[in-house]
Amino acid sequence: MPTEPSAEDLAHMRAALALARRGLGACWPNPSVGCVIVRGGRVVGRAVTSPGGRPHGETNALAMAGLAASGATAYVTLEPCCHHGRTPPCTDALIAAGIARVVIASRDVDPRVNGAGAARLRAAGIEVMEGVLTAEADEINAGFFSRVRAGRPLVTLKLASTLDGRIATHAGESQWITGPDARRAGHAMRGRHDAILAGIGTVLADNPELTCRIPGMRAVPLVRVVADSHLRTPLTHKLVATARTTPTWIITRNGADHARRRALSDLGVTLLDVPAGPAGVDLKRALEALAERGITRLLVEGGGRLAGSLLRAGLVDHLAWFHAPAIMGGDGLPAAAAFGVERLADMPRFVRHTTIPLGPDLLSTFRREA
């Protein structure tokens, strides 16, 4: 039995990973799993988890392969599940189809699986190879892993600012600091997340839609979330007016005004109650409430106050920072409001991941320092 993946193994796993990336934002609460089935050097099945999380990628690929799955190799980006939920276990489907070999990228951290899926396949006489392109797969699965391990979604804070970190003039003008290429990249980013979070200040100032406006990119609507402790979101704003067709959730503090609650609910808005926090709602509990509803990947596009609060609480996992080649000066509004840093050692620190030019602008992505 080979202990190292072959060039063919790596190529087919990369194809499975590409499929999994395509499903990001559409599969929550389940992970986006890519599966490629190969028999005799020919791909006979390939699929990703369906929108809404079911059927799983393995089931979809097996359906495509049909009888050709017998004796084939299945390349899967996440360990196949072995527990009964709303659908039968993927391990049973792979065994029943006569799959001879399964190559796995990442182990499923769900305690109901976590090695048991691979063990179930081996017990059925299937050859199993694990750990193929794990780092790439873990990046795709990071939101699902965060929900399981930390009880909250993976949080990406998106900022668009001048070189000196200003997101709006002192009068509040912010559209547009960056150019069309950067804005399109921002919409693509929305398309790869389950939900988008904005603060009430941004909602009141901009009356945003908070949608992914790239035609055909999303199979399911992006969930729009507003942190609004006092339910100040206007009933006439776009988020509320479209709540029946595009999910709109408002995170508010326990005991918020009953009449406002009823008015928003009647218009299709979902209200999530959490305790009050230092600057509105308790953000840690807010993220946990989103995870309880299935959100695994959250993009934050709030203003400086929300950004500062999340950074102060240590709740930002990734940064996506769009910089325009311009200087506004100290009277502009900062990307992150003051959050009490007195010593350099207290600053949240990140590690740069990528830097991409977008027309005249620059997108830099960072990950939280371990």
Q: Can you walk me through this structure?
A:
This protein is α/β, with parallel strands linked by helices and 370 residues long. Helices cover 29% and strands 25% of the residues. The strands form four sheets. The protein has a nine-stranded mixed sheet with strand order 11-10-9-8-14-6-15-18-17, with helices on both faces. It is globular and about 65 Å long. It contains twelve helices and 18 strands. The model has no long low-confidence stretch (mean pLDDT 93).
Which characteristics define this entry?
9-stranded mixed beta sheet; 370 residues; 5-stranded mixed beta sheet; globular; alpha/beta
Structural topology:
Elements (H helix, E strand, L loop, with lengths): L6 H16 L11 E6 L2 E7 L8 H9 L7 E6 L11 H7 L4 E6 L9 H8 L3 E3 L4 H7 L1 H8 L4 E8 L4 E3 L11 H12 L3 E5 H7 L16 E5 L10 H4 L6 E6 L4 H9 L3 E5 L1 E2 L2 E2 L1 H10 L4 E4 L3 H9 L5 E6 L9 E2 L15 E9 L2 E8 L2
Parallel strand pairs: 3-4, 4-5, 6-14, 6-15, 8-9, 8-14, 9-10, 10-11
Antiparallel strand pairs: 1-2, 1-3, 7-16, 12-13, 15-18, 17-18
